[in-house]
Structure formats: C-alpha cells, structure tokens
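Task: sequence in, structure out. Protein: Gluconolaconase.
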Amino acid sequence: MAGAKARYTGAAPVGLAGGWSLERLAPPSRLFGANGLRTGPDGRVYVAQVAGSQISALDVDTGDLETISAQGGDVVAPDDVDFGPEGDLYITEYYDGRVSVRGADGASRVLRDDLPGANGITFHQGRLFVNECRIGGRLMELDLNGGAPRVLLENLPMPNAMEVGPDGMLYYPTLGGNDIWRIDPDGGEPERVAADLGVPDAVKFDSAGRIVSTQVGSGEVLRIDPRNGERTVLATVAPGLDNLTFVDGRLFVSGFTGQITEILGGGRTRAVLPEGLTWPLDLTIDAGGVLHVADGTYFHRFTPGTGLEVLGMLFSPGWPGYIRGAAAVGQGAFAVTTSNGQIARWTPARGEHQVLAGESEPFDQLYGIAVGPGGDVVAAELGTGRVVSVRATGEVTTLASGLDRPMGVAFAADGTCLVSESGVGRVVSITGTGPVTVLDGLATPQGLAVRAGTLFVVDAETKTLTAASLDGRSRTTIARDLPVGPPPGVDPKPLKGLPPFSGPQGLFAGVAAGPDGTVYVSGDAEGSVLALRDLRGGDHRKGDLA
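Result:
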C-alpha cells in the first residue's frame, strides 16, 4: 500500500552493539492516536491527533498520509476540525482551550483562547459552533471576527463532536449524560433525541438524514433515525471510538488507538489504518515474565504469538486514570502513577483500583514507579523534584528532595533505590545522607531497570540505551538512534491535560529487563516496543558501540 510509512522517521536506523539483536514487538504507529475526523474539500480525511499535536490528511483508498500540522508547530492537542466557507481549517485545541484557524498557506492564528475543553466544532451556513467537552461545558456560536461568543447552553455534561441535521437543528452528544440532544441554532430549549447509549462522542448525518454516532464505551457505530428513534448497530469495532466522517457516502470512524476503519455493510469493516500504540510509556514485567505496557489511556499485556492484548482503557470499569508509570506487584495487580497526580493499586481483572496517595492533594507530575523490598511503593515526582514512598497504610514519606526532574525509579538487589535525574543527566542512589551519583555524563535519562547487577538506562535526548555496572566500573552503549523522545529538531509544546480525563502529559521512554535477559524499551517516538537480546549470554560489558 502506498504511503505505508510510520509517523516517525529517525535520522538513522537503530545501531546495536556487537552480539545484540533487536525485534519490534509492536510495529511503529502511523498516527498519534486518532480523534476528530473531517472530509476536506480535496476528498481526503483530515485526522486530529490530541496526543501528538498533529493533523494529518489521509487518502482512504491508498492509505497515503500527509502531515498538515506537525508536532512542535503552532497547533497544540487538536481534537476536532472543520472547514470554513473559504476553505480555512478551524481547529479545537482541547488542552489549551483554544480555537485556531489554519489558512491555505499553512499560517495559523488563534480565534479564541478562553474555551476550556474546546472540542466539538461544526460550520452551518457560514456560522461556527463549538462546545467544551468538560463537566459544566458550554455550547456556543463563535464570532468569526473574534468577538464574544454567543452561549446557547451551559452546564452540559461533557458535550462532544456535533453537526447540524437536515432539519436545521444542531445535534450534540454528551458523554456524561450518555445521550444525544438537539437545539435550534438560533436558541431555545434543547430536546433529547436518544438516551441509554454506549457513551456517544460524535454525531454526524448520512445522506438519508439519519444520525450516525460512534460509541466510545461500547465500540459500536450506531445509526439512529431522529424521526422515529429507530436504532441500528452498523458495526462493533472496539471501545475507544472517537469520531466519524463520510467520503462519497462511505463511512469512516476513528479510534484512540489510531485505527481508521471503514464501515461496510452487514456489520463488516475494513481497516484503512491499523491500530497502534500512542506513546508508549512505562514497561513492567510480572512474576511470570510477562511484559506489560502502559500507554496512557490504554494498558496492554504482551504474549508471544498473540501480541498486545488490552487489559484496560479509559472507559473500563475501575480504570485508575491516565497511566504513566507501572510496576507489577503480584496477583494480577499493578502499582501505577497517573497523570492526574495519584499513586494507585489497580487490578484489571477485578475492574477496581485503590488510590494509595494523592487523592485529596494530587502530586505534581508523577512518572516512574517501583516497589521496594519491603513492599513500599516508590515514585518520582518530577514537578517538585521529590522521590516519595507510600506504605500500604497510605503514609507518604519523602525519600529525597531537591532533585532535578526525577523520572525513572528502580531498585537494586540489595534494596538501594535508584533514580534518574533527567534535568542534570545522571542516575543517583538514594541514601540517608542524600543522593549519590551512580552514573553521570548522560543527557536526559528517563526509564531505569536493574537485572543481575546491571543498570539499564534509556536516554531520550541522545536516543541511547546504556548498560552499566552498579559499582561504576563499566559502561556499555547497547543501542543508539533509538526511536525515543521527540523527533530530531522538534520541541513539543506541553500537553496541559484536562481532568477528569488527564492531567499534564509528557514523554517517558520506559525500560524493563526480563528474566531471560531480554531488555525491553518503549519506542515512544514511533509508538513501538523494542526487544533487545544479547545473543552471547548477557555480558553487557562486551561489544560497545564505536
């Protein structure tokens, strides 16, 4: 298929030290997830990608992708898009609360910057309507010249992607209400059209004037006749569906995993773009040697021969929140850090989680997490420069403070706690008298793992994986030019997040070491998971890269 390239292309292929092999357990993703969809005047589908701050144009027949607005550009966290009467692209920037306009020349300007949770957007007869996907959100008509909005409704329970129907009414779904409503664009009282759905997050209309709505909770693509309420399930894809669009009568839907699916007749579907990982972030291995992958709004288990299996996602029962750090703690449970600033114990099979710390006073940007020899949970709090320990009773102790952007956490066999300071390029051990340097000369160390006396460190800036002895006597670069961190020359804008879906988001390349000596790395730049194996039996001091 033409255009079948990934979203990220490094400056060079991954280089390995002698005797090492590399396997991608999950292939590179083509998008940073997929959110709002809109068919453009050129017949291509424009795909907004919140997590990657990117907008791409997709040819649904060839699969060819063109980046319209790139990561690191003016547009941040685009969630939905529509085209204005003059062909300009109007964009809601969810986390920054903005509506931006991108002209045909590629230049962008901000129309409004005071719309927290700006999400659903649609034009009708030259008039622009926008809503805010948040608790207490508003539905508004915006002045194209930047004047004050006209508020049609407020205090809505998370409205989302919307459209004006053939009857001239503006139809909008609400995630919090699990229903679809309509209102006259000129004002008046809203009317509920459908209720008890599968958590609708988008509404569009087919050529027969029927509602077609994606259900993010159930994964259904639902058709509803607004004239008589008749419902038909066109297809069931997977939970995490986000939006939809029509191209010459053909129906396409997007999903959080980046999959773009064509909905065919009789419940059949066709994957136009395959699903993939959005980042991924932290990695952890359970007592049985099974690898698990934290991917923000998803959490996966990897089994050889089967691949990635979803254990939980944003709309799963008992979901703890956007997962950044993860550590297996036994009996199918995980200690996790969330972007909402909480440390929790999560058991996917039971559909439940327990907040261990941070419920009333959230932490400031939690990253890596590990479990100490005594069972205490230890996590890095980047925002305050602390490493904190949480006992089963919920008691929180500060193990270290004054660190420079701590991110990764791991324990040595003797119980020593190791932390990566991404701000100063070193790994330290936490002692009673303060941090002691274990490994320095790094740039932006993030994920840490320890196995058999060897420390593994992923450096997101130099894009390397380093193995070092804990006694400081040896150091080996196992891999370079890894697909981690931002693309070369790109400085991504911060993703501020918006509770309850997510707090501030940030890149984090995790690493884990398996019992067989395999080292796993999160290829967060391309959305892959890498498995590196020492074919000589695990002496990491041999075969350093030149």
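The longest strand covers residues 135-142.
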